[in-house]
Amino acid sequence: MYTCGPTVYDFVHIGNFRTFIFEDLLRRSLKFLGFKVIQVMNLTDVEDKIIKASREKGVTIFEYTEPFIQAFFEDASNLNIEPAEYYPRATEHIPQMIELIEELFQKGFAYSQGDSIYFDISKFPKYGRLSRIKPGSRAFSRLDADEYEKQEVGDFVLWKGKKEGEPFWESPFGPGRPGWHIECSAMSMHYLGPTFDIHTGGIDNMFPHHENEIAQSEAATGQTFVRFWMHSQHLLVNGERMAKSKGNFYTLRDLQRMNYSFKAIRFLLLSTHYRNPLNFTFEALKQAEKSVERLLDFYHRLKEYQGKEKEEAEEVLRSIREIREEFVEALADDLNISGAISAVFSLMHEINPMMVEGTLKREGAILALKTIEEFDQVLGILEKKGELEDWVQNLIKQREEARKRKDFATADRIRAELLERGIVLEDTAQGTRWRKKTLGD
Ligand code: AMP
Ligand code: ZN
């Protein structure tokens, strides 16, 4: 599975995260249903806006993008998005892109004009099959005329000739840098082969980006590029797409500062079917906080529940199994998330009263707990893998850094803070270890 990743010229906004969370749901659902997943998500780390911003700051594009790449990983981890298997960076795959452009040249799909190389879409009759936007149509004529002079509207740049003051790479077609579309063709096929199963992205990527990817890849290889395309609809604000350029966006960090929880943000972005637009409001986010709280409360009480009797009534067990079946069927039906979430709430409504009345038996509680933990393998709302571990390790690292610069006040404060949360640190010759507090501490 190939996923168009972020352009790392700034913090990623929650509109982007709607798409990344849809892709995470897809990934987790496929795994849950028994498929093996290899996911590639690219990082676009050379691009017009990056070049402009790095020049203004007086740093290299690498110095400019690195903090945003790290911030992206941090945000994704906070949203409990499972890491992809590969995160190729465009700047590290220039040779693969050059090779693909050469192939297109040899086969007559590319032409040079000025210092740049373009793809000739008139040579690829299937152009427009994915988006159903054909050359000559109205959407087509709205294609932005970028600064690169191609021969026909719709032809797109494969290699951008070097401009003064811009970063560049040497190539058989002269110094320059790759166009955006060739990146994704080259990197996806490099990691996944000429034909692979699933390609995803937000709906705005369908045309022209994905249409161009198909044209480049299939023209070069003569084979089917992708078996299934899946696109998520946008996150909107007042009916308009959330976008950097419109200024109507929130980053995860903005919402964090306003004290919204990551779990609620994830739940909100997850809970609308990916092919429907989702309008962002704070009302809806507050509602999501409440839903998550109820689920967490249920989950924790179930974990601690001590049933007096062991054996559960057959009808209770059957009902839990039926709810599990509903959940699985909903997911398998084009990721019907509303159906899946309603199964989760059914489980809660079924089991909650029995816990309150004390009629739930141990066997029933164990099955219900196992079921909700299975649901959470897909939803990723209740528990984050290694959440405590990450958090503690991070503080240990900060404490070590503080000690190195002889800031013992900070080091002690971190130790005290951890102790307050039930974590005891032990400094050993091999470094600092941690364990949970016991009665003797
Ligand atoms: P970009 O960094 O602009 O290349 O976008 C990264 C991903 O986010 C792409 O898959 C886009 O389609 C997607 N995306 C951008 N804006 C939104 C939005 N408002 N809602 C959902 N997805 C979006
Ligand atoms: Zn892409």
Task: Please describe what this structure looks like.
With 441 residues, the protein is an alpha/beta fold. It folds into three domains: 2-237, Rossmann fold, CATH 3.40.50; 287-384, Four Helix Bundle (Hemerythrin (Met), subunit A); 390-436. Helix content is 50%, strand content 12%. A hairpin with a 2-residue loop joins strand 9 and strand 10 (240-241). The model has no long low-confidence stretch (mean pLDDT 93). Adenosine monophosphate is lined by residues 4, 6-7, 15-16, 18-19, 201-202, 204-205, 232, 234-235, 241-243.
Helix and strand arrangement:
Elements: E1 2-3, H1 14-32, E2 40-41, H2 48-57, H3 61-78, H4 94-106, E3 110-113, E4 116-119, H5 138-141, E5 156-161, E6 176-178, H6 180-192, E7 196-202, H7 206-221, E8 226-232, E9 235-237, E10 240-241, H8 252-257, H9 262-270, E11 278-279, H10 282-304, H11 314-332, H12 337-357, H13 362-379, H14 387-404, H15 408-420, E12 423-428, E13 431-436
Parallel strand pairs: 1-2, 1-7, 7-8, 9-11
Antiparallel strand pairs: 3-4, 4-5, 5-6, 9-10, 12-13
Helix pairs in contact: 2-3, 4-6, 4-7, 6-7, 9-10, 10-12, 11-12, 11-13, 12-13, 14-15
The protein binds adenosine monophosphate (AMP) and zinc ion (ZN).
Adenosine monophosphate binds at residues 4, 6-7, 15-16, 18-19, 201-202, 204-205, 232, 234-235, 241-243.
Instruction: Output the structural class.
Output: alpha/beta
Number of domains: 3
How does the major sheet shape up? 4 strands, parallel
CATH homologous superfamily identity of the largest domain:
HUPs
CATH class of the largest domain: Alpha Beta
- Give the overall pLDDT as a whole number: 93
CATH topology of the largest domain: Rossmann fold
Strand line-up across the major sheet: 2-1-7-8
How far apart are the termini? 49 Å
Count every beta strand, where a strand is a DSSP E run of 2 or more residues: 13
Q: Radius of gyration in whole Å, from Cα?
A: 26 Å
